[in-house]
TrEMBL record:
It comes from the Bacteria. The keyword Hydrolase does not apply. This is WYL domain-containing protein. The keyword Cytoplasm does not apply.
Length: 152
């Protein structure tokens, strides 16, 4: 998993990086990079092949927005498409991003719309943006709910 995290970090640095360059930077084979990119895409990380190299989609990808919101304890506004295909815009207080079933990534967060802890599958988040609003540290009760939702 650490290798894939390093791969995403390389792509976050911007630009379009060929598999050969990524392999050199990460100290792995080109085929390992191709395999890791495929697994990351399956997990919902928006990586595209562009001009012979890999790049993250969009100026502020979903994953990047989530990371920024987590680091800054900022409210995250996102559009989530549920299993029935219905999209809703929600403001959430992100807690943790975890890998889970089937290689998918999930965001565990307090959902202001539902006033409850929710688990959002990353590949079902159409877009996300960090708001300027900070949220406080969760209290003990909410921490317990978040831990339970995260499987802990």
């Amino acid at each position: 998993m650490k290798r894939r995290d390093a791969l995403v970090k390389e792509l976050e640095s911007g630009g379009c990086l060929p598999a050969r360059e990524l392999a050199s930077r990460l100290g792995v084979s080109k085929s390992t990079v191709v395999r890791d990119v495929a697994r990351l895409r399956e997990a919902g990380v928006p990586i595209r092949l562009d001009q012979g190299g890999y790049a993250l989609e969009g100026p502020d990808t979903v994953k990047r927005a989530i990371d920024r919101a987590l680091r800054g304890r900022r409210v995250l506004r996102l559009e989530y498409v549920g299993t029935k295909g219905v999209a809703t815009v929600r403001d959430v207080e992100p807690s943790v991003c975890i890998g889970g079933r089937g290689g998918h990534w999930y965001l565990v967060a307090w959902c202001r719309l539902r006033e409850d802890v929710r688990v959002f599958r990353l590949d079902r988040i159409s877009w996300a943006e960090v708001t300027g609003e900070r949220f406080p540290e969760p209290g003990r009760d909410r921490l317990a709910e978040l831990a339970e939702a995260a499987g802990g």
